[in-house]
Amino acid sequence: MPTDLKLFQSGLEALKQKRYAEAVSFLESFCQIYETIPEIECQELFEAQAALVKAYHFTGQHQEARLCCQKLAESNHPQIQTWAQQILQSLPTESSVTTPIVLNQILLTAEQAAKLLATGSKALRFRHYAEAVQALEEFCQGTDAGFKDYYQGQMWLVKAYKGNGQLEDAIALCQKLTNIDQEVTQIWARQFLPTLLPSTSQLQSQTVQPAEKAAPVKMTMRSLSEFKIFCQNNLLEDLKEFESVRKQTIISVSLVSTVIFIIFCLLVKSFPLEYIIFCIVQKVTLPYFLIFLFLFGFLACLWGWIAFYTSAIETYTHGFKTKIIQKIFDFINTNKTLNYASYASEDDNQYTLSAFIHSQIFQPLIKPNKIQQQECIFGTVNETPIFFSEICTEVELKHRWIKYLTFSQHLKMLSSMMIPPVVIRMVFGFLLPLYSILLVTKLIKSIPYIILRILRGQQINYRHFEEEILRNEVSRRTVFKGLFFQANFNKKISGKTIVLPNFANTNLNALNNRNEQQIKLEDLEFSKFFTVYGDDQVEARYILSPNLMTKLVQFRKRAKKNIYVSFVQNMIYIAIEYADDIFEPKLFKKMLSLTPMREYFETINLMLDIVEDLNLNRHIWGKN
Q: How many whole angstroms separate alpha carbon 314 and alpha carbon 119?
């Protein structure tokens, strides 16, 4: 057996060092030994067969590669079957030109696949196309169509191929995506494919004037009337489906809420309030065990309702971003120069949080240490690089002391000390007043949290509810919630200039600890909307030209939201406040109404208009 494994390892090593003929010899010998024992199916055999396909391919033995791959396609393992079928499609026939293929491990765990997808997404966002191609190829080859975000990875791989100059690979994969069963991906592939194929005019210009650089094509901004037609033709059926699910969700939530409310009322009615008052008046020991049971029952009702409500909302919103938001983004993205991601990796979160702190717009007493980042849009608009994302930054404080007060921690500690049950019951009885106070605190904290989220028709984050209310492990305070926009500033500046909204409802975190001096500007209309702080009067006036101030005022009037702008070192940052989640469907808003769709459209369009409204591509964006 050690000799067999040595053949396997020698074959993989030869393949890694591109000694393909030796790899074929070692791997063939290894496979022949194990194939004579039909009852044995091991991971090494599958890996050896997969490596042998690659070795055959690079030695020009295409027929042998196809035969080996067909054996794997007949495996009893569904994932290996799917992998082999995908590789079969990429293997050339005897008459075709050989193109290199990349084979990695056959199976990826969910954690490995998610890590590769996040790495590819981040590399694509920052235009590290070679790195993105490598990570996304590994992801696509190690997963199948049943894996979450499989087709999202394929779409990103097309874009990575394009950015890396691998147009043939990009076209081949994009054409393949036009024929799959998933409608959203089909539509995307059909819209993206023309951007990979050169037009007749492009070919003529390359033939007649090969040295002349084509003028950049300005992004065509979509109008609201065009968007209404688009909704009617492309979103109506999906919206009808979501509306049906929304109505069913409301009915389910209403029924369960009614049942839990009845139970809650029965608990309130049977609560021995008069007896407790009597005990207090007569200075008799309170029935803490009875109080504890009732309080626990109240909290259990809220706990159960939260769990059901969260599950129902998740069912309703499932697929909304891929079916609706992705289509709206593709409609707006006329030049296909932008990318959209519905989630961000932990590395991306830390990068955005660092940029948010660096902006110095919001300066709370304690710096935010937690960020939730959802939709990200990045790319170029009229040759201007842009990046913006919906974020929520928070200050998170952990209550490390709470573990010394909870019943579960006490029970665990006493059990580990091998203390008799009688003593445990005595300790429990002694600490009942403390446990009851903790339950009252949880009830007081949970009710406003629940009511506020219900009135807004928003999803309740069950994990946050459990951490903040049920376990009381952390406290979170929101610093900023809304859209955050950032980019390079082409002029080196020594200090910083901060532009804040001049209204009573300005975020207090933007006013705390302001050490900069206030700068008075002559533009009266600008001063009506904004207050400027900075380190240098001359530099601030240099940055805030009359034209830029006019554009900021116009932008503020259009957005009708609090807008914050900062110029720090070589960066520009823009933050726009939103109270609610921007791209989440609301439970109590009809999906067949144009209003929510219009909000999504106008929000994305508003951010893309920043470049044109502020003339960023001509004045302050880009590097000379």
A: 26
Rounded Cα gap, residues 36 and 46, in angstroms: 15
Do 608 and 219 meet the contact criterion of CB atoms below 8 Å apart?
yes
Q: How far apart are CA 532 and CA 383, in angstroms?
A: 29
Reading the block at residue 371, the tokens are: 């960020």
Which pLDDT does position 205 carry in this prediction? 42
Q: How far apart are CA 492 and CA 420, in angstroms?
A: 72
- Domains annotated for the chain, with CATH where assigned, are 2-90 (1.25.40), 110-205 (1.25.40), 244-318+400-472 (no CATH), 331-396+478-613 (no CATH)
Strands (E) located in 427-495: 474-488
Instruction: Report CA 570 to chain centroid distance, whole Å.
Output: 27
First-residue to last-residue Cα distance in the chain = 64
- Global model pTM greater than 0.85: no
**38-54 confidence digits (pLDDT tens):** 544 566 777 778 888 87
CB-based contact 570:305 (threshold 8 Å): no
pLDDT digits (tens, 9 = 90+) for 120-131: 877 777 677 888
Tell me if residue 568 falls in helix, strand or coil.
strand
Q: And the tokens for 300? A: 């259990």
- Both structure tokens of 35: 């194939």
CB burial of 249-262 (b: ≥16 within 10 Å; e: otherwise) equals beebbeeeeeebee
C-alpha closest to that of 582 among 610, 551, 605: 605
User: CA–CA separation, 410 vs 395, rounded Å?
Assistant: 29
Look-up of token digits 């489906």:
241
Structure tokens at 456: 């807004």
Report how far residue 374's alpha carbon sits from residue 582's, in angstroms, rounded to the nearest whole number.
10
